Predict the structure.
Amino acid sequence: MSESENSIHRHLFEHPPSDQHVAWGWNKEGQLGTSIHSRQEAETSPQTISKVFFTRDLSVGLSHTLFISRNGEVYATGKGRYGRLGLSDERTQTVPVRLSFSKRVLRVSAGSFHSAFVTERLELYTFGRGESGQLGHGELVDVLTPRLVEGLTDPVDLVSCGADHTILTTLKGCVYGMGANKHHQVNEMDVAILPTPVFVDLNPLVDSLTARASDITGLSAGTGFNVAIKKGVLYAWGLNAAGQCGASSKDETIARPHKIKVPSAKGNTKRIFTQVATGMSHAVAVTEEGEVFGWGSSQHGQLGLGMMTDVVTVDTSKPVRIGESLLAEYVIKVACGAFHTLVLTSTGYLYSWGLNDYGQTGPEGVGGITSVPHRMRIPQRGKDGSTIMSIAAGGRSSMATRYYPTLVKVRESTYDKDIHSIYLNNQHTDCKVVLRAKEGGDEDKHVNAHKIIMARHSQFVEQLAGDTIDATESFTSIPDLSSFLGRLYSNNVAYSLAKVQDQAIHAHKCILVSRSNKLKVELESQFQEALNKTLYIDNVDPSVYLTFLHYLYTDKLHIDQENAMNLLELAHEQDMERMLELVQEYIINVVDEDSVSFIYETSMRLGLETLSDYSEYYISKNMDAVAQTDTFNALPDDLKKKLSLHLVQEGKKAKGKQQNCIIN
């Protein structure tokens, strides 16, 4: 192992750099986690947080914050009333404290008085205030520790906590809500409280046997309203008194999800949204072109419109492009507090605007309003050269975290290119899109296509039972049709997943050959698999292979501690390099004394140098504990010998360093 690798290993094993996480704004309840001995009412300039974990993700509520560490543990700080911290009591904490929870967590959401998170098994847990049914347990009581929300038949994907309600999506794209429903922020029923998850009519409900991938990529719950992103389009429902649902404020409530109208881009092309955040009565969203749009209340400058509203009347119930200093920037992230907004640019700069009564938009102008986006004076790079990777806001508080180190460099995804290649290559088609000839005209014309992609557009869905789709009413020429189909193949994820039926997995050849070179060889050759159109899988657990197929279809890899090693072997066997890197990254973050020996043996057998090097490092640092495990005792003698030599070499290095420090 080189000295640079050793340095990375030590860095991963030790505490994070002090500036990996910074926070500023309201801190009366300790929600910033910056103080051990006392609580400043406000931190008007960014302060570092002293902690023993790398922050991977976080969520800021009204007066508490939840963090996810690199290995999936949850930490909480801030006001403890109602049990919103999940620490089994109602005590307030001024520094992050780890929850006693054994499962690895993927996503967290902190609401006004309650909290939620999604585990790696895609289960939903909630805790905190429950008097409005926002916890989804069927009872109107507070819960002091994380409790599983039962009754959800499909795995949970996204979750967002509002003031007194909770919204979530499943992997199949179904939306559910629970809690207060006075403003129809849960669904259209005229019921004040809904204490268990109920269906929200944004996507059609599907049964447990129907395969479908979620097309909802963004979700945010505000105070009495919600905004979601479906196929790049904004939808909102709930309270609309300030136009926060993107509709005229004459309609005080929007009972069902409605599409928000957004001005078209140049060339009359549709804007595709990638992220959305909500405050108390405003919302801000980012497009794939890095543009920022805001709507709803601008009373406290939270839309960043500056003097514009003094000169002209601006209807902020419709999304307005937020300009000023952002016009030359490409924005990649957005976060909203109650009355302020943060954005992060691709160059690592952070901009803020809105109410600044506690310094939540920065040290300049504390006590007033920051009416236009201004760049905060936070260094682009930290002490270790890392850039800001994430931002969060809630209440009157703000936070930012820098990139956390990893031993595995995961390459960029080729998913969009792979899916578009299906259209370009036009192979393995299973339907025709037809333009009927007019009377006295030429013959019918058609374009070969794939049903799985055609299912992405509503006008084609009803015709998928047959092999022919009639597009005559919508298109007048083959070039127009081809251009539309090209865009259809390029946007969003594949809609229908592989299906399990009669002990067989029914998949789509066009997806498999575009995503995997090995499967392409098998299915397009003269091998028996290609001739029979059948692949026989006899050495892989079916659930693991389904996870692999889900990755091929959606580019999302669902790893947990039960399937990680099997996925590692499968990714290696299938020559899926990016998938292999993703699995290794996960394993490095969850390794422990019991598992490290098996990981070491497997990585040596597969020739995975980074993973085996890290295993050696981990074992050398924890040899006394590792040596007591059954997995270590089961190691082959040659590997034990190799480890012994490694330990001797490490000992010599350590001794040499000690000697180099002696001053005669």
Summary: The two ends are 31 Å apart (CA to CA). The chain has a mean pLDDT of 87.
